[in-house]
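Is flavin mononucleotide placement plausible here? Inputs below.
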Amino acid sequence: MNATNKLTPSSLRDAFGHFPTGVVAIAAEVSGVRVGLAASTFVPVSLDPPLVSFCVQNTSETWPKLKDLPMLGISVLGEAHDEAARTLAAKTGDRFAGLETVSNDSGAVFIKGTGLWLESAIEQLVVAGDHTIVVLRVTELTVDAEIAPIVFHRSAFRRLTPH
Ligand SMILES: Cc1cc2nc3c(=O)[nH]c(=O)nc-3n(C[C@H](O)[C@H](O)[C@H](O)COP(=O)(O)O)c2cc1C
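Reply from A.M.:
I modeled the complex. Tokens:
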């Protein structure tokens, strides 16, 4: 191991970046308008009952619009979605620009061309420091095994498959 770094929010963000993750879109319709964000903190939690989680920043301006909805759509972004992941996180502009989406009757919004869709309902919120752990119950799943996921690692998007 190299030298021990000073523990600050910034060095911790960099440190957490050493842990590779996937990226999901969390999205739903609010009065007919698509609302969503990109998240790299998605974690499968439980098989029975079927639970997943992600962490949302307490300062998020998007989360208050999503948190009271009956259903949210979770889409695991594919390796073609590096630009989409940034767009889905943009502070200004249309977060769904250039993306094809499908909206369920429940209001959950999914991104087309992604490997996994999970329709889910918020089950529990756990405040944890400057984030909140959102636990969701999965109500429906759709898999496309042909689509490889994108990998987020040290602020860069990487692929599992060579090209
Ligand atoms: C690759 C990537 C992963 C992200 N992961 C998270 C996350 O896990 N939790 C979170 O709250 N925001 C995450 N963000 C930031 C959000 O997508 C979004 O930018 C943030 O919610 C700020 O916008 P808002 O104030 O409209 O919510 C991520 C952004 C990117 C590009």
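Short version: The pocket of flavin mononucleotide is lined by residues 23, 37-41, 54-57, 60-63, 85-86, 89, 91, 152 (CB under 6 Å).
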